[in-house]
Structures are given as structure tokens and as C-alpha cells.
Design a protein that fits this description.
de novo design (two linked rop proteins)
Length: 181
């Protein structure tokens, strides 16, 4: 074999090993998105549980505020439905975008409920209510941190997918941009 043939085989092997390494790196980053969403999903589930308990406790205490409760319940149901869709493919842009909107609606409904509770002085004697609210605030802070980790994982993945020469591989294997929350 001539030196030119060896050079050709060497370049082919180099491209092959680069392709395998780049593919594995992008898959590892994509799996990191799934892992980060799993942590976020735990906090979404815990928030749903706490909101349900809070609403159960408040319904008899504030019978005139059923519209506020219904808004929070609807937002919670929508968030849980969309979280289920994101669990399957947390790196897919469309379900994550829908979940981001649902989270914003949920946050607005929860803020309205919290401000409503601040205006009702008669509720201050219910210790269980304030314990639930404190627990919910803690879960919200944890969810916010988990969301930040998810967004960082998405950023690392998107950066890897858009860099040359990995971008060539990404288009061949269908690695698209992920969306942050």
C-alpha cells in the first residue's frame, strides 16, 4: 500500500472516531436534560400534592373564592398533563414550551391565592394552613433551582449541537435545539 492510501485510511479512521465521540457527547448531554427534568418533575409533583391539600383545606374556609380555587386546579391539571408529555422527550421543544406557558399560568394562579390568603385575617389561626404554605414556598424554591439546572443542561446541549463540526453530525442524526423553561 502506498503512503497516500495509508493517509486516506488514517483520515477515514479519524473521521469515524470523531463521529462516534461527537455522537456520544451529544447523547450524553441529551440524557443530562432528561436527568435534570426528572429532578424538576419531582418538585412539580410535590407542588401538585401540596396545592391539592391546600385547596382541600381552604374550600370550606373561603366558600366565596371558588373561582380562584378552580383557576388553580385547572392550571395544576394542565401543568401535570404537560409534564407527562415532557417526560417522554424532555429535549423536544414544543412540549417544553407548552409546559413553560402552563407553569406561568400556574404561578399566576398560585400568587393570586397567596395574596388572597394574606387579606383574610381570620385564617391566621389555622396553623396547618401556614405550615402548608411554608412547605409550598420551600418546594417552589427547590423547583426554581431544579428549573435552573434543567436550563443549564439545555444550554450545554444546545451549545454542543450548534458548534462546528458537531453541527454536521447533529443534522445527520436529527439532533435539534432543545428549549429551556
Amino acid at each position: 500500500m502506498s503512503s497516500l492510501a495509508w493517509l486516506g485510511w488514517g483520515l477515514a479512521a479519524l473521521v469515524l472516531f470523531w463521529g462516534i465521540g461527537a455522537y456520544n457527547r451529544v447523547m450524553s448531554l441529551r440524557n443530562g436534560i432528561a436527568s435534570a427534568f426528572a429532578q424538576l418533575d419531582l418538585h412539580l409533583t410535590e407542588r401538585a400534592r401540596l396545592c391539592a391539600k391546600l385547596l382541600e383545606l381552604l374550600r370550606p374556609l373561603l366558600p366565596n373564592e371558588q373561582a380562584t380555587f378552580a383557576a388553580l386546579e385547572n392550571a395544576q391539571a394542565e401543568t401535570q398533563t404537560l409534564a407527562l408529555a415532557v417526560r417522554a422527550k424532555p429535549y423536544a421543544s414544543d412540549p417544553v414550551a407548552s409546559l413553560a406557558v402552563a407553569n406561568a399560568v400556574h404561578a399566576a394562579a398560585l400568587t393570586r391565592l397567596m395574596s388572597l390568603l394574606d387579606h383574610h385575617a381570620e385564617l391566621r389561626e389555622h396553623i396547618e394552613l401556614y405550615e402548608l404554605m411554608d412547605e409550598l414556598k420551600l418546594v417552589e424554591r427547590q423547583r426554581s433551582f431544579a428549573r435552573q439546572l434543567f436550563n443549564q443542561a439545555v444550554g450545554l446541549y444546545n451549545q454542543a449541537v450548534t458548534q462546528f463540526p458537531t453541527r454536521i453530525l447533529a443534522s445527520l442524526y436529527g439532533f435539534g435545539d432543545a428549549r429551556s423553561l
